[in-house]
């Protein structure tokens, strides 16, 4: 047998293996989607998220009042403990400055969704880049790569050692008080989580037979990483992204409670509304309950979907 | 075992060094700066330069960093702007309160969470399981400070079952021995003080326990589900071992491994959760102090707290590793 036919044979074998690997990869996703469709958790989660997204999109147009208009100012006396509760025109009543709570909830949904999405994207993108570099270095980089990986991981460990809330506070202290600050602060906190997850998944995949096959065929390292290891390492990252949408919204509320939320009264956000309501909680509990319930239900929606996805993607639960 | 501890302690050094660089850069970036803080906004450039020279702020960055590092190494975390006292002293004063709170919260979470998670897994799909799973999902999604507000409003303000703020009633004259209020009462025989302190602790601890409880329930449940189908469990059952032995020695002991890790990590996060909880209940621990420092832009306190918490976090991780090697003999071999 000549050398040429031999390599040809290996090539075909490798293509076969690699092919079957990627095809199980694709069918893993299809299978997962099938399981997701029958999961009650996933359906409830998806319905909640869909409703939230619809409100976030059309809410500001439906709001009967401007979120910053103090229409009923003369009637609200927070100091005396008199609040205008729910009534005909104001379904949720008025807040401490006489603004229509229902309108503020509708308009606020968009900001809340925005905070969640942008913060998660920041964490996801930055974490993804760090994770992929670290994972690639660790699996295919040889000795130098492993050293690069361990330096990066020390840094990530350091970020994880910081309490997330305090990290966010420190960032907000430098950048000042605004919605952007909250998004960045909450996003940065997620970076080490995503980086670690992706790296961990890549390490597992890096030891798989199909990677060895591709390597022995002389496939370029960059290609192995991007088209073989990476697609097979994505599922935990996607699950985490869904879950972290929930965390981001909750953390943003906590930052608002600490007084670092968006100060602009014209752009209401549920976290800020909840934080403002806590001073009046004894006289006007509903003022805090509405935004809190909004946050809890939304976070629950993302958590349910994320957990259902995790279960659906878990190969151990197959069959 | 000793080697493990030493190695982990050595690993602590680069982490803390890196952290100190980050914190130093952060302080450097803060708007304002000490000169304008001391002189106010109307300061002339000459005055600012004079102050900067006096504080050594005109020196190159690495010289400043070296001084910063030396200071921290000597346990000098700076002076609190709010109280005028050294940050370290303020922490030491308030640390026992926070430890008491976190400890009680963690005990609650573990004592309720592990049995609940175990029961949920054993009766999978039953009402305990459904209740535990949905309860823990909701628990994770409630903002901690809101939960605290609701609990306080209902159980303390409206119903009056518990005190709504503070560590102890003002009328009680307790002797301070260790700073741990509950322990002090027991040591000195002032049991009413102990009881009162415990009474004050319960609501904040329940609030603080919510997230670790939710995590522990789910973790234990998932872990037991995984372990109870293992081959060694089936082997143990089929060779006729008593059920209680199989469940205790084979299922629970192995299922608790990941739970121990998460308990350790959660303890670290309790300290930052304490910032929210303590402030809701005006509980005078480190968390509440940090909250007022955030409000008052008291940066030395924040820097000190971050260094402090990072150290606690790494030490807890170390403890987890040691605990791990005790529970799981396989770890010791490596």
Structural class category of chain B: mainly alpha
Termini gap of chain B: 11 Å
- The CATH superfamily title of chain A: MetI-like
Quote the average pLDDT of chain A: 78
Which stretches of chain A of 5+ consecutive residues score pLDDT under 50? Answer: 18-23
- CATH architecture grouping of chain A: Orthogonal Bundle
Q: What is the chain-wise order of helices and strands of chain A?
A: HHHHHHHHHH
Structural Rg of chain B: 24 Å
Order of helices and strands of chain B: HHHHHHHHHHHHHH
SS-based class of chain A = mainly alpha
**Quaternary structure:** heterodimer
Overall, the morphology of chain A is: elongated
Topology:
The complex is a heterodimer of chains A (319) and B (334).
Chain A: H1 3-38, H2 40-62, H3 101-140, H4 142-161, H5 164-175, H6 179-206, H7 209-216, H8 221-257, H9 270-277, H10 285-313
Helix pairs in contact in A: 1-7, 1-10, 2-3, 2-10, 3-4, 3-6, 3-8, 3-10, 4-6, 5-6, 6-8, 7-8, 8-9, 8-10, 9-10
Chain B: H1 2-29, H2 34-39, H3 45-54, H4 61-73, H5 87-122, H6 127-141, H7 144-158, H8 181-188, H9 191-227, H10 231-238, H11 243-280, H12 286-295, H13 299-327, H14 329-333
Helix pairs in contact in B: 1-13, 5-6, 5-9, 5-11, 6-9, 7-9, 7-11, 8-9, 9-11, 10-11, 11-12, 11-13, 12-13
Organism (chain B): Streptomyces heliomycini
Domain ABC transmembrane type-1 (chain B): 95-324
Keywords (chain B): Cell membrane, Membrane, Transmembrane, Transmembrane helix, Transport
């Amino acid at each position: 047998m000549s050398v040429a036919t031999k390599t040809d044979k290996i090539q075909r074998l490798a293509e076969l293996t690699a092919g079957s690997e990627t095809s199980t990869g694709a069918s893993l996703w299809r299978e997962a989607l099938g399981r997701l469709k029958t999961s009650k958790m996933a359906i409830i989660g998806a319905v909640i998220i869909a409703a939230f997204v619809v409100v976030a999109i059309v809410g500001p147009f439906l709001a009967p009042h401007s979120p910053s208009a103090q229409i009923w100012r003369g009637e609200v006396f927070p100091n005396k403990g008199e609040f205008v509760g729910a009534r005909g025109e104001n379904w949720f009543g008025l807040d401490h400055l006489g603004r229509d709570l229902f309108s503020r909830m509708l308009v606020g949904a968009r900001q809340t969704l925005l905070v969640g999405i942008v913060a998660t994207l920041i964490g996801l993108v930055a974490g993804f880049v760090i994770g992929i570099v670290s994972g690639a270095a660790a699996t295919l980089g040889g000795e130098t790569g492993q050293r690069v990986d361990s330096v990066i991981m020390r840094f990530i460990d350091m970020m994880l050692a910081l309490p997330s809330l305090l990290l966010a506070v420190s960032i907000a202290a430098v950048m000042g008080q605004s919605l952007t600050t909250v998004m960045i602060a909450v996003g940065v906190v997620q970076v080490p989580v995503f980086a670690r997850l992706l790296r961990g998944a890549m390490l597992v995949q890096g030891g798989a037979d199909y990677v060895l096959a591709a390597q022995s065929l002389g496939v370029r390292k960059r290609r192995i990483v991007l088209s073989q290891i990476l697609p097979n390492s994505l599922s935990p990252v996607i699950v985490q992204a869904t879950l972290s949408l929930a965390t981001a919204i909750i953390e943003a509320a906590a930052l608002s409670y600490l007084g670092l939320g968006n100060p602009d009264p014209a752009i209401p956000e549920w976290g800020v509304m909840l934080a403002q309501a806590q001073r009046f909680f004894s006289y006007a509990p509903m003022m805090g309950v509405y935004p809190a319930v909004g946050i809890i239900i939304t976070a629950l929606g993302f958590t349910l979907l994320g957990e259902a996805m995790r279960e659906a993607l878990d190969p151990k639960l197959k069959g | 075992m000793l080697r493990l501890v030493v190695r982990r302690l050595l690993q602590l050094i680069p982490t803390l060094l890196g952290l100190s660089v980050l914190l130093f850069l952060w302080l450097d970036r803060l708007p304002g700066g000490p000169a304008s803080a001391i002189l106010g906004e109307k300061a002339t450039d000459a005055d600012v330069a004079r102050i900067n020279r006096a504080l050594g702020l005109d020196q190159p960055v690495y010289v400043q960093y070296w001084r910063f590092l030396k200071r921290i190494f000597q346990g000098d975390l700076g002076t609190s702007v709010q109280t005028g006292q050294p940050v370290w002293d303020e922490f030491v004063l308030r640390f026992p309160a926070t430890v008491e709170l976190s400890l009680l919260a963690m005990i609650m979470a573990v004592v309720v969470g592990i049995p609940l998670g175990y029961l949920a897994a054993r009766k999978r799909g039953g009402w305990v399981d459904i209740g535990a799973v949905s309860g823990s999902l909701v628990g994770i999604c409630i903002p901690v400070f809101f939960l605290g507000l609701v609990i306080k409003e209902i159980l303390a303000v409206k119903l009056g079952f518990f005190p709504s703020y503070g560590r102890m009633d003002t009328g009680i004259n307790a002797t301070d021995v260790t700073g741990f209020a509950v322990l002090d009462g027991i040591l000195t025989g002032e049991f009413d003080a102990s009881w009162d302190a415990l009474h004050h602790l319960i609501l904040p601890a329940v609030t603080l326990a919510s997230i670790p409880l939710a995590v522990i329930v789910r973790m234990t449940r998932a872990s037991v589900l995984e372990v109870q189908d293992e081959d060694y469990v089936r082997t143990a059952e089929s060779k006729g071992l008593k059920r209680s032995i199989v469940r205790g020695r084979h299922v629970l002991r192995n299922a608790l491994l990941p739970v121990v890790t998460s308990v350790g990590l959660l303890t670290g996060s309790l300290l930052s959760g304490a910032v929210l909880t303590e402030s809701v209940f005006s509980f005078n621990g480190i968390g509440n102090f940090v909250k007022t420092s955030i409000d008052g832009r008291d940066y030395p306190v924040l820097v000190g707290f971050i260094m402090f918490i990072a150290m606690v976090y790494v030490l807890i991780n170390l403890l987890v590793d040691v605990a791990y090697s005790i529970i799981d003999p396989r770890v010791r071999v490596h």
